[in-house]
Amino acid sequence: xxxxxxxxxxxxxxxxxxxxxxxxxxxxxxxxxxxxxxxxxxxxxxxxxxxxxxxxxxxxxxxxxxxxxxxxxxxxxxxxxxxxxxxxxxxxxxxxxxxxxxxxxxxxxxxxxxxxxxxxxxxxxxxxxxxxxxxxxxxxxxxxxxxxxxxxxxxxxxxxxxxxxxxxxxxxxxxxxxxxxxxxxxxxxxxxxxxxxxxxxxxxxxxxxxxxxxxxxxxxxxxxxxxxxxxxxxxxxxxxxxxxxxxxxxxxxxxxxxxxxxxxxxxxxxxxxxxxxxxxxxxxxxxxxxxxxxxxxxxxxxxxxxxxxxxxxxx
Length: 315
Hints:
By secondary structure, the protein is of the alpha+beta class. It is 46% helix and 11% strand. Strand 6 and strand 7 (264-270) form a beta hairpin. Helix 1 packs antiparallel against helix 14 (298-311), helix 6 (123-130) crosses helix 9 (173-184) and helix 7 runs parallel beside helix 10 (191-202).
């Protein structure tokens, strides 16, 4: 498959190395998340990035064998899975498609919207969608998602039981309040099952290569996955993927991107003017634990800004 204007393919190792070094320096401005014990123990100097092009070219830098949890980066892929399994009508009867200026775990936003999650990239939306995953319990629901993702993206994701225990060790009253309001508003049936499922899927883990492979799932969108579903996910990543920073990032960078509090980020790099039609140059996956105030990887945001500005990667 040949994509016109595929500037990502023209990157040199020297260019990439320069930007990676600069991104690592920028990461020192960030902070580790403190509310999940294992995430708080991450080495702030850990760094891994993979550029993957549709012609098969791969560029990797940093600690490429590191294993890390996806956390909120899993949200677009939960959405894609459910769109494929249930269809858009069923999915968007439980969650909206509008951006939010509130934090990712905002109860205020959910209350203002009378219990309807604003979009699938917020905790409220992801918890509501977790309740739709097939399976009798949280473990089987997570396994169904994991198997599907591994099959279609050729990745090797797994459930990190240690990370799950760490997440469970701290009472997340905000997420519980969100789930309770969702239940009261009729958008989920079982609060405990939805929360446990959400915690499970956020603890799916892998390497930077696995994350890049997930990105390619949205970049290439090969059958049997429907093109319209990839387009929907990419659009929502563009408008909602970086929480309060989403609008600014969409203007400055313009790449469909999703972040997670582990420091993971994944982006789809569109062909010029072609992202709406499902063609792309490739995907970029980055992992660097220090976060900015909005909960996005400092190094990841910086790296994507440099790439987009220098190579004009916007769709």
